[in-house]
């Protein structure tokens, strides 16, 4: 493996580990796990105005109350969805042909997930170290793929988010309490 940069070796490790983990678990189980995570995250965000208000009656700090409320909703919904989806994934594993296809698709899913993770890493580097990237990163053979993935992820990020520009540009838009501002925005009445 002569001529591979450190980031190339790291990328190969990420792709291998992600692919093998998904191969062992299978596509259905991996997809259902992500479904449970996304569903729980959405439930936590959507319920935050109501559950945060309830928690603020018992906890003095609005920030802590909102975070605890969101964490509890996330945990409860994640466990509930995971309980339901685990029985679905068990039924898929019963057939041998389906299991082979499921595991093969799982491996592909894992490699794609690994590529997305590499893109996220490059996106973090681009936003925290604006300007020229380190040579060990730019010189990596896998960098063009990871950088293209980072651009894709950045294009999907909502405007005004951290991923929408460099850290220096985003710092200009932050006040002393960005988390508090976010919570205030989520508590605002959408109709008023």
Structural class: mainly alpha
Q: Globular, elongated, flat, extended or rod-shaped: what is the shape? A: flat
Rg, Cα atoms, Å: 21 Å
What is the chain-wise order of helices and strands?
A: HHHHHHHH
Organism: Marinicauda algicola
InterPro entries: Colicin-V_CvpA (IPR003825), CvpA-like (IPR052719)
Biased composition (Basic and acidic residues): 169-192
Protein name: CvpA family protein
Question: What features would you describe in this structure?
Answer:
This protein is mainly α and 192 residues long. It has one domain. It is 77% helix and 0% strand. The chain has helices at residues 6-25, 27-56, 62-92, 96-128, 135-138, 143-156, 167-172, 178-187. The longest helix has 33 residues, at 96-128. Mean pLDDT is 78; it is low at 165-178. Residues 169-192 have a biased composition (Basic and acidic residues). Residues 162-192 are annotated as: Disordered. The chain crosses the membrane at residues 6-24, 31-51, 63-84, 105-125.
Features:
192 residues, mainly alpha, 8 helices, 77% helix, 0% strand, Colicin-V_CvpA
């Amino acid at each position: 493996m002569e001529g591979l940069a450190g980031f190339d070796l790291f990328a190969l490790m990420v792709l291998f580990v992600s692919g093998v983990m998904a191969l062992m678990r299978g596509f259905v189980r991996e997809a259902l796990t992500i479904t449970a995570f996304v569903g729980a995250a959405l439930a936590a965000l959507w319920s935050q105005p109501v559950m945060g208000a309830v928690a603020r009656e018992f906890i003095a700090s609005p920030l802590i109350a909102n975070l605890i409320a969101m964490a509890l909703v996330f945990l409860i919904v994640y466990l509930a969805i995971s309980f339901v989806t685990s029985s679905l994934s068990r039924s898929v594993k019963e057939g041998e042909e389906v299991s082979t296809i499921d595991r093969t698709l799982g491996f592909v899913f894992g490699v794609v997930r690994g590529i997305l993770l590499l893109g996220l890493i490059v996106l973090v580097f681009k936003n925290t170290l604006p300007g020229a990237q380190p040579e060990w990163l730019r010189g990596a053979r896998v960098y063009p793929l990871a950088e293209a993935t980072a651009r894709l992820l950045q294009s999907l990020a909502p405007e005004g988010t951290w991923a929408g520009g460099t850290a220096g540009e985003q710092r200009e838009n932050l006040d002393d309490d960005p988390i508090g501002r976010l919570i205030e925005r989520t508590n605002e009445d959408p109709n008023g």
